[in-house]
Amino acid sequence: MQQDSYSKVSRREFVRGTTKIGTTAVLVNFLGTDLAKAGEPNQSLGQPTSAPKGWEEDLEKVPYRYDGMAKVTGQKIYAIDIRPKDLTGWPLSETRAVILRASDAERTFEGIDTRKLKQLGVSQTLSASDLESAGIKPDGFFSSSIMAKKGAPAQFLGQPISIAYFDDVERFLDARSQLINISGFVKYGKAVQPQEGKAYGTSRIVRYTGPNGKELFSYAKDGSFRPPWQSPNVSGSNNARASFFVEKIKQDFQENDWNIVEGQFGTQSVDPVFMEAECGLSWFDPQSRELHMTLGTQSPLDDAEGCLKMLAKAKGIKIDRIVINCCYPGGGFGGRDHSEFPLYLCLAAVFNPGKSIRIVHSRFDQFQAGLKRHGAQIDTKLAVDQDGLFQGFHTNMTLDGGGHNNYSFAVQNVGGRNASSGYAFPRSWVDSKAKPSIGVPAGSMRGFGSLQAAFAMECLVDEAAAALKMDPIELRMKNIITDPQAVHTGTVPLFRINSDLLLKKAQQTALWRNREAEKKKRSQGDTLYGVGVALAVKSYGKNPGDTCLATVMIDADGKLRMHTNSVDMGNGTATTLPQALTSVLGRHADQIKMGVTSEFEALNLYSKRAKNQKEQDEFAQDPRWVPFKAMSTAASAGAYQMRHAAIQAADVLLEHGLWPAALSIWQQSSEDLPWNKALVRWDDGALSYPGQVSIPLKTLAAQAHKEGYVTGAMVHTYYRAGWTSAGFEIAGKKQVLKADALALRHGKQEDFQVLTRSQVQYPPMSHFDKGADLYTPYVAVAAVEVNRKSGQVKVLGGETFLDCGRVTNLDIVEGQMQGAWAMGIGQTLFEDSPAHEGGPGQGAWNLHRYRVPRARDCALERVKFNIVNVPNQDPPKGMAEVVLNAVPPAIVNAVAHATGKRFRQLPLQPKKILEALS
């Protein structure tokens, strides 16, 4: 058997470092230089294994991103950069594979002309019949057909129809351009009318409060319910009661003298436009029954689970171990969460064993196959009384999920939960669903359904302001959620939503104060000028819960190392998580390993989903049980949830490692100097305490290693509208952590020893219905010019305001705002990915057909991005998604201000402007 890619890991480390999915061991590697091929020790490969030069100059601030130098100098950090020759033990022979995809889903698929493919150099093909003969079928999350079947239509445009192998890489390179449009190689038959299938997910959120503000019904208070919707009955089930209050809201809208403003809004499907298209390496060793994959992903453990479920009943294919080497995914904000790409990388390997298989998506492939943002149709109705107070709203949102249910079930729900856009409503009724189609599957993407909902609500609020002849900001100020008020799910946010402070700042800008005067002055000839505003309030974190893992270790020389299951997908966590340690340990981490899960197996945990409170209480009695072992990186959870896990581990290291080391050096007892974290300070990398000499971190580390104090802490944390807490006994001292699992390393030891928890307190199961209780507000003001003759819209500049709690890294936060501004302009004015006829699912799409904003379109040099410091500053908040949501409605409202015409469908292309102005 050939040496494998984890050959430098000892047997003990491997057994300790693997997790189990069924009977199969799964090892998730941090891909760094330790896996580089022997004989090339200076080769830079994968994620950086130490902080870049310059990070040591300031112990708290960093000069640039942790991964920045590696990226700008072209080091091998993405899967596209890695070749078999770079990895220890991989077969040197490289077979290139390409996934061939259907360009027609309205005619039967009748096979591929293999003769023509062989002429191109194809040495082998894999089709649905091969999978069927092997007993392979989809299971679990990936529920659609893996490949289109002969004699039936493809389930969706871009569905794989075959994997073609090229043993000769040069032949592949020559043939690649001919495979961009494969219509000449595919046979189609008779026309078939697509049948609309069952919705991927359907949600209803209803809330009703009485005249005195008493909550009569809400999702959070009364509990969940599922379709089909029952007949109204105020004394019936939650479902029937929801229907009763739906009818009550309809009646209230009809019988009261309120202004009813309503509209039908639409947002288009767009592509994430990854910096790096999906690609990877795979190798199946039939002798050891090991599958190796090297790729960039947000969800490595889920990818392994998807592969194993797909192969669960396969004939003659048995996998005992999966090894996943994690690279940086190259951006994407969600587009690689449960991507189907790893499944095909797996199939390509198991059907061509013993070889290194390389699949590289071109940008053409990525447009045809990559997950998209859900196109949406949103009908919204808003009731406003004569004083400008919102009395209720109703939203009906339908998302196009494409041909596979990739998180559509969750996206529609999150969109529905964020449909109120941060306003207080005594009455609310939201219906949302995601439906199947023959389009390219839609999945996770920045905003996760909330962008669509925010666009409709913020444009409609502006229409209401016009109807009432009110200033749009004044109308918003009258109706925002600020002090502990419930959102439309009935949940009271954990932190105050400071929308009022942001709106006041926006109101004071010269851009807003002078907008009417500037409109009159600058609207000359063919140019129309306008300024618009929008508020966005977005939840952050996941439901059914955020599962965060972190290890913080200190070496004898004082270097800090961190491991986490989080992945940097463009959100900057490779930089901000190391910086999170400064508040506890006085300096940032020198190294971070991201995307690892198997390294946490020292905690010896298992998970099983509890169905009710009784089961949760029963399961929690086992100190090794947790609701979920790990999660994919998503939901802007880095700033608050992932940071929390890192700080919990750092706190343990400080109290039980560095503090006793300090006492030893001071020759003091814990009785004479009892632990008091509030008195501990860090000055220039040295621990200081009143009345004692300061001790450098390096000296403390050496003492902790010498005396056998704690030198590493590993935690598992869980958030479900509240942190799990548990008791642990450390060095004879009992204490409570906001964590449900803990393992420690002492002195020079390498192994972690798990501690047995006691008195664990999990958030109640009812918090599943409570949903998100963490929200971040953002306000955008945008100025535009519209050309009467061409219909072109030009964004001139703007000013934005954000409350994201305490800022860990200012450059990262500002970068997120700048990137979201550009992305929002693309969503509003340019980008369009037709879901069906003529769209990228039919192939031959690239950036020559898909218009993205250029630098000249974004006017970033004329946009001021403000981070607002508020009283009683909260901890860092997730903000990467919310800063996108406000941009499209702000631009559309600005166009409406300029033209006097309302626009409700994105993208806002010139022909729509011209039609409205004609």
Question: How would you describe what is shown here?
Answer:
This protein is an alpha+beta fold and 918 residues long. Helices cover 27% and strands 24% of the residues. It has a nine-stranded mixed sheet with strand order 1-2-14-13-12-15-3-7-5, with helices on both faces. The chain has a six-stranded mixed sheet with strand order 10-9-18-17-16-11, sandwiched between helices. The protein has a six-stranded mixed sheet with strand order 22-21-20-28-31-32. Helix 8 crosses helix 9 and helix 11 packs parallel to helix 12. InterPro entries: Ald_Oxase/Xan_DH_a/b_sf, Ald_Oxase/xanthine_DH-like, AldOxase/xan_DH_MoCoBD1, AldOxase/xan_DH_MoCoBD2, AldOxase/xan_DH_Mopterin-bd_sf, TAT_signal. Residues 506-596, 626-858 form the Aldehyde oxidase/xanthine dehydrogenase second molybdopterin binding domain. One of its GO terms (molecular function) is iron ion binding.
Measured by DSSP, the beta-strand proportion falls in 15-25%
The gyration radius over C-alpha positions equals 28 Å
CATH H-tier superfamily of the domain at 201-269 and 373-540 and 773-917: Aldehyde oxidase/xanthine dehydrogenase, molybdopterin binding domain
CATH topology of the domain at 201-269 and 373-540 and 773-917: Aldehyde Oxidoreductase, domain 4
Fraction of residues in helices? 25-40%
Characterize the quaternary organization of these chains.
single chain
Coarse shape: globular
Structural class: alpha+beta
Strand order of the largest sheet: 1-2-14-13-12-15-3-7-5
What is the CATH domain class of the domain at 201-269 and 373-540 and 773-917?
Answer: Alpha Beta
